[in-house]
Amino acid sequence: MTSTGIPVNPSSLTWYMNDIGLSPDSLAKKAGISVSHLDKILHGNNDPGVSFRQLNNIASKLLTTTASLLIPPPRNPSLPEHVDFRRNKNEPLSYESNKQLKQFLKARDNYLSLNNHEDSSSALLRQFHHRELSQRAAETRALLFGNKIKLSLTELSDAVERYGILIFRVHGVPTSDFRGYSAYFDVAPIIVINNKDSENGRKFTLLHELAHLMNHTSGLCSISTNTEPMCNQFAALVLMPESSVMGCKEDNVDAWILKISDKLGVSEHAAAIRLNDLGYASRSDVAKAEQRSKDAWARRQKQQKTSDRPVPQWRQTLSHLGRRYTSTVLDALQSGRIDELDASYMLDTRVPSLEKLQTHLGYDEGGY
Ligand SMILES: [Zn+2]
């Protein structure tokens, strides 16, 4: 075998492909080389070898550095272990989801390097036992909602982020891939929600993931087979306390469901499940409500498609990366710790968008 190219480590290449969920066919296509050429590299055949430009292409599609493909692979998967995906199937995550989740973990690293005040998520993320579920849901509601009966998704996200939790949103990924993801860290744990879901669905997912974060270290998640229903119940109790549900009472169940949905900002489906738990709605009421929620969301998406106006880039950034992370980067920019190029890189946005973000988030004019 003649050695003519850069000595790529085949096990590393395989590792990064598995880690991001790319098959040889799709990697070859994305990186602009032939499948047979990639196959040779994967078998350690260095003839014809790979040029630096090709290697660079491959590395960028795998979201890694060229150097990492020359050395042995890492020991652990890049996504942290304590994770939850609210998802419908057990297939591997799509490339697009993997890619965005990795970008969020990178953003979290940036956040840690820029954030110089101690975050404390402990008040919100205290562990609890299953039997304390209702009590902790009520406490959580008090911490996040104050006196408000319902919160918009933005308000809820802001309230959760105030406790040092970073909330990110994936875009362009179907909800069948995943609805929510969470990874626990002592500092800056993260929650990711899927933007393709309805607003009410996303609120529910956010609280579901919050329950996971609360319980990660207790072992409750791993020893209990009831973790998923428990997290769902937690989300339902936070959004729909019994007193508020009863406050919406109507004689007709469908009207009651509709009123809860409207007053408490939940889907009709979630409202019906809650009424079913409390013994006021039947399974068929729940099934009907589920269908109505699906129809409503389908109509909404259609409307959005027809009135599609391009979303300005700064708005996309904010929606993607959340307020807490975005403001941390902008704070660092304003205090001169990083420059515009760093900030635009960290926020994955063009320099002109930075000023728009600053204006929107209430920074002083011309602040940097
Ligand atoms: Zn879950």
Enter the CATH topology name of the largest domain.
Arc Repressor Mutant, subunit A
Approximately what portion of the residues adopt beta-strand conformation?
Answer: under 5%
* Low-pLDDT segments, ≥5 res: 217-224
Biggest sheet, strands in spatial order?
1-3-4-2
Bound molecules: zinc ion
Q: Can you describe this structure?
A:
- The protein has 368 residues and is mainly alpha-helical.
- The chain folds into 3 domains: 10-69, 434 Repressor (Amino-terminal Domain) (Orthogonal Bundle), CATH 1.10.260; 79-239, Arc Repressor Mutant, subunit A (Orthogonal Bundle); 313-360.
- The chain is built from 17 helices and 4 strands.
- It has helices at 10-20, 24-31, 35-42, 52-61, 95-114, 133-145, 153-161, 199-215, 220-223, 227-239, 242-247, 253-264, 268-277, 283-306, 313-334, 340-346, 351-360, and strands at residues 83-85, 166-170, 180-183, 190-194.
- A 4-stranded mixed β-sheet has the order 1-3-4-2, with helices on both faces.
- α13 (268-277) packs antiparallel against α14 and α15 (313-334) crosses α16 (340-346).
- Mean pLDDT is 86; it is low at 217-224.
- Bound molecules: zinc ion.
Quick structural overview:
The chain is mainly alpha-helical.
Key terms for this structure?
about 375 residues, single chain, 3 domains, Arc Repressor Mutant, subunit A, four-stranded mixed sheet, mainly alpha
